[in-house]
Structure prediction request, 1091 residues.
Amino acid sequence: MLAALLVMVGIAVVIGLVLGWSAIRLKVEGNPLAEKIDAILPQTQCGQCGFPGCRPYAEAIAKGEADINQCPPGGEEGMKKLADLLGVDPKPLDESHGAPKPKSVAFIDEQTCIGCTLCIQACPVDAIVGAAKQMHTIVAAECTGCELCVPPCPVDCISMVPIAEDLPHWKWKHPVIMMKRVA
Amino acid sequence: MSRTLFTFKGGVHPPEHKTESNTQPIHSAPLPRHLVIPLSQHIGNPAKPVVNVGDLVRKGQMIAAADGYISAAVHASSSGTVTAIDMQAVPHISGLHDLCITLETDGRDEWIERTPLDYLAMAPTELRMQLRDMGLAGLGGAVFPSAVKLDPGAAHFCPTLIINGGECEPWITCDDLLMRHHADDILQGVAVMRHLLGSTEILIGIEDNKSEAIAAMQAAATRMDFAVEIVPVPAHYPGGGAKQMIQVLTGKEVPSGKLSTDIGIQVFNVGTAHALARAVHHGEPLISRLVTVTGHVQRPQNFEVLIGTPMRTLITLAGERDGTTGVLMGGPMMGVPMPSLDVPVVKATNCVLVKSAELFPPLPRAMPCIRCTRCADACPAELQPQELFRFAKAGDFGRAQEYHLFDCIECGCCSYVCPSHIPLVDYYRYAKSEIWAREKEKRASDLARERHEFRQFRIEREKKEKAEKLAAKAHAARAHAAQEQTPRTEPGAGEGAASSEADARKALIAAAIARAQAKKAEVAPKNTDNVSPATQREIEEIEARRAKIRELARKPLESEEKP
Amino acid sequence: MPAPFILDRSSVTQVMAWVLVALLPGVATYVWLFGPGILVTLSLATATALAAEAAMLKTRGYPAKPFLADLSAIVTAWLLALSLPSLAPWWLIVTGTLFAIVVAKHLYGGLGQNIFNPAMVGYAVLIVSFPVQMTQWAGPLELTATPLSLTQSASVIFGGDFPKATLDAVTMATPLDALRTGLLQQLTVDEVMTRSIFGHYGGVGFEWLAAAFLLGGLLLWALRIISWQVPLAFLAGIWLAAGFLHFFDAGRFGAPWFHLFAPSVMLGAFFIATDPVTGATTPRGKLIFGFGAGLLTIIIRTWGGFPDGVAFAILLMNLSVPLIDAWTQPRIYGGAKHPDKDPSA
Prediction:
């Protein structure tokens, strides 16, 4: 009886030492989780998740304060990646935060624009150029399609234009093989 | 000629079908009424138009200039009027349109003034820029700008120059005919390449099913004042692939992810050498090429075709037949189906192959993979195609990359031998293009993140500056001239006997912001540290271009001078 | 549909058809040396397999015609039938075939998706569940006084009214079985080998059957339908393992030739271990796969609870295929390392 007890205690001590040693030796610095989550988020900075940008949302997820299904631009795929990273079950996107849309860029109707600079202030990635009383224009290559510039415009001259498929953006499609009968 | 040849692993022996078209002489295709000249005929940045609608241009006049280093100019193939600069159908599998310049020819076919280049007297850089401006690009199929490939880079010379006359792809005979009839011109071009690359060993590999071409080239080689070795190589698909040709001739392998120049070898197609000779010795930019028109036509043959000529014209010329089931640009192993016959001939068009149900029966239905590894036996890149297929199909692109997806040269051998008739190459193209798209998306989101972070930093800074100004104003009002420094260097700016509480609070806020900003500046990425957004953008553009160059430089050499 | 637009003339059907053709010498030798009973077993297994395949395809929503025409179900049926005792009762054959097609093949996803060789799964299920019925082997005609005709065999198989004494007169323990029971009775190998069933190498009749399977296997290799690695490594594994044991104690362990010339070994080496779906795919992987299967066969034969170990050995190696493949990824053109083998990655 005593021998068994001693053996068990001995094992516990040894394992405890190993664990303690590894906790010190293999320590990971910083909080890489928020970084990893942020890397998955689409960086649209649209705020549809309820946070002021992707980074705050990532931090909220890391702290367990936000769910993984609040990012419509990331879509189903982004949500699955987050679920994968965090080891939780995937869940359908939360409709209250909006639905995924085809990737678009904002377009300013330059005839209507009055140069109020409100959209410039709203743009999270500084993708609108222009100055007060000067016509504004969107740098399409840097626009994330967040739509944050649309509501502030007093003359409704900003519209979202879906990105059309052109040769540089063309992709090979997944080959379709009809193996099964489709009813 | 007792060179020891090596073999490459894998490969297949599809029926050759060369005699249909290689027994006829070369004819010039007539001048069409309209020429549609795409601006993106080469790999790299599309050329930028330098003419306007309504301009009169002459044959050989530059109508679009090279944009950047990896690019090539585009020229008017004949004289006439520019009638449109717009989106037109181009020879691409997607059927999407691309920017083209349309010329209405005037029938006079008037040349610009042509001045031969004294290449021996020119500085190499200057010569390469000239060649870029003459629109030279690889004519083997990948159309990589030749000027870039003629730059030996840091090594300053490239000991081995291989001229690829393999033409392993079935049906195509344009290189064969070119070698038979223009052997001297080809070697003149080789002389220029040799000059630019400083090569000491020049090998011309020709598949042994082209005995006339071999004879013609050998005769021409004796007339040259430098040593050229014409090496007949066994006809074995894809023996005309650049990597396979290198392996057969030298026994060396291009290391994975590297360029052939890294092992001192550069490869050009015979057509490119010919075009180079025309450019240097005759001052003619690349405005025409040899095109094999074969398959289901009445008179299969090779034509000398102006770039921009509609494919329909060529098929009519060769005799259209009933029962056509489609047209390929290129051969049956790697060719691309054309969305319509109105697409123009471009620099990459080596063959217009007309299909019929008899010559190209519809492919049988695909069955599941039984892992028989015939594809692995046939793969010249020595990959495991069955595993790549599994990963690509499942969307497991990471694993596909681990199994060397990007070493695949898309030669089609695996699909050709597959007993289950699985379109394997389609899966690899799909996987590659998904990976590229994802990387692009990743870059875009990284850019957005950086810009967003910079914006926040800027807003913070502006706030701070405002606060500073207010604090300074308060000080001025109190007329204490002793301290005129910023809160940043002296955080305790509000200390001196605060008479106004509001001022003090403002100053405190300013100090806090300054501290936060200083801390932020420490952790902020270097290039957002003290560089203006414009400069930063520029840096990113340069980085992107570099990445693109790497990516592009890698891909073409794999399939460049393909069949 | 993009390139290539031409195909070599090969198909799954063609591959499977050649496998069936290569089995014919074995079937013919079987009939010649052991009587026509095997034909009944083959037909019954084929019919069951086709019916099960058709039913499963229909249930799973796949078109029946192309998948029945690929002949893979028939190959499974033949391989199972040739592994079963030739006078096994009909329900044994049907159960084994159904298990092979329904569970081992279709429940795993059908053609190309199964992890285990279906025929061997069918065999393993039968020998574990019905060990007694799995011993009804017709003895070689050379040693049988009154050989059974086709109708008599059918009658035995379908459980017709058949005197037990007659049945006992025509069935016989296989050489492997005889050796095993002999050794359990504390006899030495040499003492057991004096019995009439043992021929020159592997047993009267059995050695010729093995030779016929070898011939068919060589045909498959000549046609490049199978690669040389798996059979050679398999036979080498058997020979080395058996030879090693025999060298140390010839009294307790059978000679390597005896082990090699069992029909199950030749069938296993050339027709079953070479099944591409369940085998290793890399060249080195095929060597490891074959050698491992050979080694395990001898281990199971020597120390296991069943007379033959080919089926279990192959099933065990089937299980290790993903690992073998991942570890033996070959060098590619240009020499990039596979990350699984690159410690720096």
User: Anything to note?
Assistant: The CA atoms of residues 14 and 20 of chain A lie 10 Å apart. The interface with chain C takes residues 179-181, 183 of chain A (CB under 8 Å). The radius of gyration of chain A is 25 Å. Strands of chain A lie at 104-108, 128-129, 137-138, 158-162.
